[in-house]
Amino acid sequence: MKIYIGTDHVGFELKEKLKVYLAELGFEVQDFGAFNFVGTDDYPDYIKLVAEAVAEDKGSFGIILGGSGQGEAMCANRTKGIRTAVFYGQKEGTSPDSFEIVKITREHNNANILSIGARFVSEDEAKFAVELFLNTKFSGDERHIRRINKF
User: Fold this and answer.
1) By residue range, what is the domain housing residue 96?
2) Number of domains present in the structure of the chain
3) Can the peptide bond before residue 96 be classed as cis, meaning omega within 30 degrees of 0?
4) How many CB atoms lie within 10 A of CB 96?
5) pLDDT digit string (tens) for 88-103?
6) Is 81 helix (H, G, I), strand (E, B) or coil?
7) What whole-number distance in Å separates Cα of residue 149 and Cα of residue 145?
């Protein structure tokens, strides 16, 4: 399975770690940048490339990172065929369970990109969320297909 990944400066360090982790899990990873830490770069320059690649390569997934993950998700979702879920980590005692949301976005919405809020997520949380996202299957239920087709 091919994974496309991209971020600006905020998620650069975490992206580099996730690339290694994904390769260790046996995924083919294509990095769309940033390739160096540049504190003044703009996330849309990288995120748009990831979204376009995922939209073109059916069955692939994307991992995008940024400060909150929100702007990145908004950028990616402008591409036809993209359904991005946002993950900001799991804080003890919070509800709902953020990992359960990651799972449901795959099962119900067939999300194909996971946007990670790098300012709020530990490396271990990010790895767990990415693996959960990639290993959770879309349910294929008629009601979910019907809803997705209305996008």
Assistant:
1) 2-148
2) 1
3) yes
4) 8
5) 887 766 656 889 999 9
6) coil
7) 6
